Amino acid sequence: MRAMNPGGTILVAEAVLEADKTDLLTRLTDLVLMVDLAGRERNATEFRRLFATAGLALKRIVPTKSNYKIMELEAKIDEQLEQ
């Protein structure tokens, strides 16, 4: 079942790890997620893969003044999902 039309947009506010540098707050948040919730922080490549499994394409990442970034996702057109 499809929850949104192809081309639909979702905005996600999330911390996105950078490959070469990560601040202490982000590392501690990652640790808490792994220990308490079986989750973790992700980098852009990992988010792309995760969203692709849900039929979404990561279009862009917009930085903010906080540790969070805004990720713009678009529903992909996939013949298998429409059946």
Overall 3D geometry? Answer: globular
Instruction: Determine the number of helices (DSSP H or I, runs of at least 4 residues).
Output: 3
Mean pLDDT: 82
Strand order of the largest sheet: 2-1-4-3
Summarize the helix and strand pattern as letters: EHEHEEH
Major sheet: 4 strands, mixed
Low-confidence stretches: none
DSSP E strands, number: 4
* End-to-end separation: 8 Å
Q: What is the helix content? A: 25-40%
What Rg do the Cα atoms give?
Answer: 15 Å
Number of structurally distinct domains? 1
Structural class category: alpha+beta
Strand content: 25-35%
Structure description:
This protein has 83 residues and is α+β, with helices and mostly antiparallel strands. The protein has one domain (9-82). It is built from three helices and four strands. It has helices spanning 24-36, 44-53, 79-82; strands at 9-17, 42-43, 56-63, 68-75. The protein is globular and about 40 Å long. The mean pLDDT is 82. GO terms for molecular function: O-methyltransferase activity. InterPro entries: COMT-like (IPR016461), COMT_C (IPR001077), SAM-dependent_MTases_sf (IPR029063).
